[in-house]
Structures are given as C-alpha cells and as structure tokens.
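We were asked to recover a plausible sequence for a given structure. The inputs and outputs are reproduced exactly as logged, with field labels preserved.

PROBLEM: sequence recovery
POSITIONS: 358
GIVEN STRUCTURE:
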C-alpha cells in the first residue's frame, strides 16, 4: 500500500500526534484533575476527528474500506466536555447527575453511528440490498451528525461565554480566554466548511479540497491542548490562591470603609459611587459583595443604615425624633425603602421595634 505522504498530510499527522500527547497529559494530570480531564476529553475528541481525516487523506481507507466504520466521531461530546472544563476550572462544578445528562447525546451519537455499521454488515456492505429506510440512514448519517454536532458546540459556547463573563467580575485569569477564543474560531470556520461540503459535495468530498480547514483544525486542536496544559500546570494553583486572598481582603476593606467613612449616610450612594471611592471596578465590587459578604449592594448598604437607626432609637438625644426623621438621618431617602429594609433585616416593623425597646 502506497501512502499519500505529501507535506499537507505530514503537517496534519504531526500536529495530530502532538495534540494527542497533550490530550493524554491533560487526562492523566493529578493537579486540578476534575478540570483538566474534561479539557483532555475535548482535545481527544478533536484528535479522533483528525484521525478520521487522515485515514482518508493518506489513502488508508481506500485500501481498507472497512476502516470507515471505526467510530471516530464524538462531535456531540466536544461542547459538553469544554463547558464542564470551564465549570470545574472556575470552581462551579456540575453535579454528577446533571453532568451525565450533558453527555447523554454523545451516547446517542455512538448508538446512531454504530447502527449504520450494523446496517452495512447485515447487507454484506452492498448498498443495493438496503431498503429505503436503511438507505436514508446510511447516506445521511454524516450530514445529520455534523449539523447536530455544530449546533451542540454553539449551544455550549454560548453557555461558556456567559460563564466567562460572570467570572470577569472577580478578575478571572485572562489566559483562559485564549482557549475560549480558540473554540470560537474553530466553530466559526467549521460551519461554512460543513455547509459547503454538504451542498456541493454531499459529504463525499475530496480531502484535498479542504486542506486549509484541516490545517486550521490541527493548529487549533494543538493550541487548545498546549494552552490548557500550560495553564493547569504552571498558573492555576497560584491564580486560585491569590484570587481567593484578594477577594477576602476586598470584602474586609469594603466593610471597614463602610463603617469608618459612613458612606451609607449618603442617601444617593450607589455601586458606582462606592466603587469610585475605593478605586475598584464596579463589577468586582458587586461580585465580592454578592459572593463573599452574601448581600446585594443595596442590602449591604441598608444593613448599616438599619444599625444606625437602632442606635438613634436608643439614644436619649434622638428619641424625640420621628421614625421617619431617624430613618432619613440613617441614610434612607424614602419611607417605603426604609420600611422594606427594616422588615427584611429585623422581621418586624419600626413601630413594633420601638415598642419592644420601651
């Protein structure tokens, strides 16, 4: 058998082998294994697709036609694997039961693909023996599989982008954006390739017509594996520790500044004004207050105002003031907002609270 070992195929082969190495390293990594193993799966699925390309491009499949039935398509698992990687990386793991549901379509894909192989086996690999239903399945499998796979990747890319934007609020390590960008590029070129292949070639394309796409796919797969490996082994631990420490320090700073500077007495105080006073980005301020202190910004401020009101209510110098007057002196700008906040934090009304104090 003579292999078609031109420079194009050698490049794809070399890149595929390199990506495969990174995929296995990510799968076997012990540090942050819950995250990296999913990226390793993702790289492995992409590598299997490249193996499918190579066996056709190198001419192996022409000499051994049965190789076309090796289950190398795991397109429906690429999106879930990448999304799971981000969730575990950002310490927001998907519960096991839900994780299984995300990968359930991948099992259907394998069942679908292997059912086609079974159809060919039953009919002695002679398409003329197929009935109409078998013929439809056998010669539309690639088109259906690819389109569903691209839709799946698009869906999980949207979820991944939303997750990344949420993490930006706590100053996420921006190197993870390189991997996300690689997947966006991959999907962006995979879609037109699939459409062209489907319309003009009916998925009976000559590989040589799409070398540019396969070069790109090889480079992207290698880049994802390389960046993921470097990120997991050299930067992840350090970043996670520093980020946790920074967030805790910011939370303590926010509480001390609010107490000492009495920013809450400003009835017009909002997230932007507070963040400017502390020279912190509003998104980060909001995330720290929500995730660490456990309040929304409004509740965070109102908690100090309520405590101020209680002090005024117990002070002999201010007892003569009306409830609304003390509320305004505490930083509230309306009776309605004061009553809502007081009920929320004290589980009673201001009048009942004052009666109990007496």
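RECOVERED SEQUENCE:
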């Amino acid at each position: 058998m003579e292999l078609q070992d031109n420079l194009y195929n050698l490049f794809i082969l070399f890149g595929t082998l390199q990506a495969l190495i990174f995929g296995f390293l990510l799968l076997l990594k012990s540090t942050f294994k819950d995250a990296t193993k999913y990226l390793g799966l993702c790289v492995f699925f992409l590598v299997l697709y490249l193996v499918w390309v190579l066996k056709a491009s190198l001419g192996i499949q022409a000499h051994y036609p049965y190789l076309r039935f090796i289950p190398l398509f795991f397109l429906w698992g690429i999106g879930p694997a990448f999304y799971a990687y981000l969730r575990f990386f950002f310490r927001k793991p998907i519960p096991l039961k839900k994780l299984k549901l995300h990968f359930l379509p991948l099992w259907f894909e394998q069942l679908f693909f292997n059912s086609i192989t079974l159809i060919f086996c039953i009919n002695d690999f002679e398409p003329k023996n197929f009935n109409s239903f078998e013929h439809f399945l056998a010669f539309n499998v690639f088109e259906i599989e690819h389109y569903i796979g691209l839709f799946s990747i698009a869906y999980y890319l949207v979820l991944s982008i939303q997750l990344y934007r949420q993490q930006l609020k706590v100053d996420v390590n921006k190197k993870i954006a390189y991997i996300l960008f690689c997947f966006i590029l991959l999907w962006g070129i995979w879609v037109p390739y699939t459409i062209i292949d489907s319309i003009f070639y009916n998925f009976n394309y000559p590989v040589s017509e799409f070398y540019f796409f396969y070069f790109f796919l090889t480079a992207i797969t290698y880049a994802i594996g390389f960046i993921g490996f470097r990120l997991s082994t050299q930067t992840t631990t350090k970043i996670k520790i520093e980020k946790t420490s920074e967030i805790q320090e910011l939370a303590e700073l926010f509480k001390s500044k609010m107490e000492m500077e009495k920013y809450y007495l400003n009835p017009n105080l909002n997230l932007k004004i507070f963040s400017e006073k502390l020279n912190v980005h509003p998104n980060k301020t909001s995330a720290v207050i929500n995730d660490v202190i456990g309040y929304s910004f409004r509740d965070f401020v109102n908690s100090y105002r309520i405590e101020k009101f209680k002090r005024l209510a117990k002070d002999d110098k201010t007892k003569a003031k009306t409830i609304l007057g003390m509320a305004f002196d505490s930083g509230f700008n309306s009776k309605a907002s004061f009553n809502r906040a007081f009920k929320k934090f004290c589980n009673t009304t201001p009048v009942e609270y004052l009666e109990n104090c007496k």
